[in-house]
Design goal:
By secondary structure, the chain is α+β, with helices and mostly antiparallel strands. It has one domain (13-97): Nucleoside Triphosphate Pyrophosphohydrolase. Helices cover 22% and strands 25% of the residues. It has 2 helices and 4 strands; from the N terminus they run H-E-E-E-E-H. The strands form 2 sheets. A two-stranded antiparallel ribbon has the order 1-4. The chain is globular.
Length: 101
C-alpha cells in the first residue's frame, strides 16, 4: 500500500506528505517532490468523497524503520508487479507509473 494520510489544518499537500512519511518512516528521506496527479472520487461503498494527491519523489534514501507501529507493521521495497495485494487506488497508481511492457 502506498503512504497515505489526512492533511492537518493549514497544511498543503507536500507538507502533509513529508509529515506523514516522517511519522510513519522517520529514517526515510525524500528528495524533491513533484505533483503527478490529483484524483477526486467518491467511495462507492461509503459514499465518502475522496481526494488524493499523488507525488513522485526525485529520490528516496535511508532505512525503512517503522515510526508508528499502530499505523504500519512493516515496510519493504518491492518490485511493482511482485504479487502484492493492492487497493484499487494503489493498483491504478502502479499501472499508470509502471505500465505492462
Amino acid at each position: 500500500m502506498f503512504p497515505g494520510g489526512r492533511r492537518l489544518p493549514r497544511e498543503n499537500d507536500k507538507v502533509c506528505l513529508r509529515r506523514e512519511i516522517r511519522e510513519e518512516l522517520p529514517k526515510l528521506k525524500l528528495g524533491r517532490l513533484t505533483l503527478w496527479k490529483e484524483v477526486k472520487s467518491t467511495n462507492r461503498h461509503s459514499g465518502r468523497k475522496m481526494s488524493d494527491s499523488i507525488f513522485i519523489a526525485e529520490k528516496a534514501s535511508g532505512q525503512l524503520d517503522i515510526g508508528d507501529k499502530k499505523e504500519i507493521d512493516r515496510a519493504v521495497w518491492r518490485k511493482p508487479r511482485s504479487g502484492m495485494r493492492l487497493t484499487p487506488t494503489s493498483r491504478y497508481i502502479r499501472d499508470k507509473l509502471f505500465p505492462r511492457p
